């Protein structure tokens, strides 16, 4: 098992009716920026619950944070935070709103060009240099409610870039599974596949000695396979909704990544598809992931075989046969979850995608990705072209 440090200070508050606790969790006399997205919180009752809980605070609102939150939009919010002397931010929404608020937290007091946070992938560690924030989760998917990472899109350059740091954990996260009742099926499908791929990025590497991490990861995968199709059709079922929400959080709160190698190349390539074509994040992962496993088959086949046996009960006469079946079962699961797994199913303008992504990676110096640092730009090209 690799050396590791486990630090997660987020107060995770789970269950029905927990939104009222906001008033106890935000420091008294705080001036609060209430940040949200496109307005779904006005339709599902969450806005009223939050406003009621904030009745004793001075509140300034900022709406319109997009899916794949835009740098340009967030810079407008930073001006409000500075001008209004905001001392606490409350993110009410899914991963995009929470990610956007993490950028607000990091960038407001940042000395220099805030874009450097993204381009240089800076680690924000000084708690004195951030605006504290909490979250009310309305869309389980990214795990952003209990981690310190975020991804922001720059409209001007069509880039989707990540950043993070130990100072960017939410102080608290309110997670009430009943909020998924009003979500469109597409968003729940996305949430399942997003969380599933988060686990795969940390699990599907090569055999190692961290037995418990593997079993916890497999437990999350098993749960998502078991409940995925059902929760899409029955979002008011509290058993399904609660297991869905908790699985999404556990998939990326840092626990299963400790002591083990991890990949993340599927995400890095997938982000480019979202930046180029506005394809939902989870759907880019369903496009890229299986083809990455095929291109990296020789270095991933042992873990693929283990995954296939333990998650889908595959059998075979060799590791290779089991590994191939595991990829097939993964694609079948993605299809069951409403995903298309070819780029050409989303856009007709895909012919030069591989060239564009390879050029981007070369410009950034991303020439050795993956758990073995063996995903060269030529392999990136092969993965993307196989995904057409």
Question: How many β-strand runs?
Answer: 8
How many helices?
14
Strand order of the largest sheet: 1-8-5-4-2-3
SSE arrangement, N to C = EHEHEHEHHEEEEHHHHHHHHH
Over the alpha carbons, how many angstroms does the gyration radius reach? Answer: 20 Å
Biggest sheet record? 6 strands, parallel
Strand content: 5-15%
- Uncertain segments: none
Shape: globular
Overall pLDDT metric = 96
Please tell me about this protein's structure.
The structure is a single chain. This protein has about 400 residues and is of the alpha/beta class. It contains 14 helices and 8 strands. The strands form 2 sheets. It has a 6-stranded parallel sheet with strand order 1-8-5-4-2-3, sandwiched between helices. Strands 6-7 form a two-stranded antiparallel sheet. Helix 2 (about 45-55) links the parallel strand 2 and strand 3 (about 60). The longest helix has 23 residues, at about 210-235. The chain is globular. The two termini are about 35 Å apart.
Task: Identify the notable features of this structure and list them briefly.
388 residues, two-stranded antiparallel ribbon, globular, alpha/beta
